[in-house]
Amino acid sequence: MKTLARAADLADIIRRLRTVRPEAAAKWGRMSAHQMVCHLADSMRMALNQKTTSTATGPLRRTLIKWIALYVPAPWPAGIQTRPEIDQEDGGTRPLNFGSDMETLESLLRSLTDEQLPACATHPIFGPMSRPAWLRWAYLHADHHLRQFGA
User: Fold this and answer.
1) How far, CA to CA in Å, does 86 sit from each of 63, 72, 146?
2) Domain assignment present for 111
3) Which of 47, 53, 68, 89 is deepest in the core (most CB within 10 A)?
4) Helix H segments across the chain?
């Protein structure tokens, strides 16, 4: 299973990220490529406990859905709803400069793998997660959106 805990998987995500251009068209969804970069950055801030999000969890989401999302070897489907605080058309970080926003995302990805995740980091849907689960989730989330833009 791929995870940001592995240097090779992190390098692959960063390599793919660097191929995304601001004018890239999405294969699904309503985000622009630049919004996607900011969305991923906000998501990494959430994992690092630097951004607070509202919760939308329950027993089924914290158990079965979490297990399926993290461990079933299948790509995530299009159309997964996000929390408003990391939705760039709602409360998420607004895109400013594509180059600097890309640098910020890359830095956050590296921070996620370099630093010990805060003990209180809680996913808004999956609830409390271990460091290995967060790093698996971060890989899958980045992969999902990179596929969205053909990277």
Assistant:
1) 23, 25, 17
2) yes
3) 47
4) 7-17, 33-47, 59-60, 66-71, 98-114, 131-148
Q: In this structure, is residue 82 part of a structural domain?
A: yes
What angle is formed at CA 87 by the lines to CA 131 and CA 101, rounded to 5 degrees?
Answer: 75
Q: Number of structural domains, the chain?
A: 1
Q: Could you tell me if residue 1 is inside a domain?
A: no
DSSP run (H or E) holding 127: strand 127-128
> CA 69 to CA 2: how far, in whole Å?
13
Does residue 70 belong to any structural domain of this protein? yes
pLDDT tens string, the chain, 151 residues long: the values are: 999 999 999 999 999 999 999 999 999 999 999 999 999 999 999 999 899 888 887 777 778 999 999 999 999 999 888 888 888 889 899 999 999 999 999 999 999 988 666 555 789 989 988 889 999 999 999 999 999 999 9
Helix and strand counts by DSSP (H, E) for the chain? 6, 2
Rounded (10°) angle between helices 7-17 and 131-148: 30
Q: Which two tokens stand for residue 117?
A: 């995740």
Enclosing domain of residue 94:
7-148
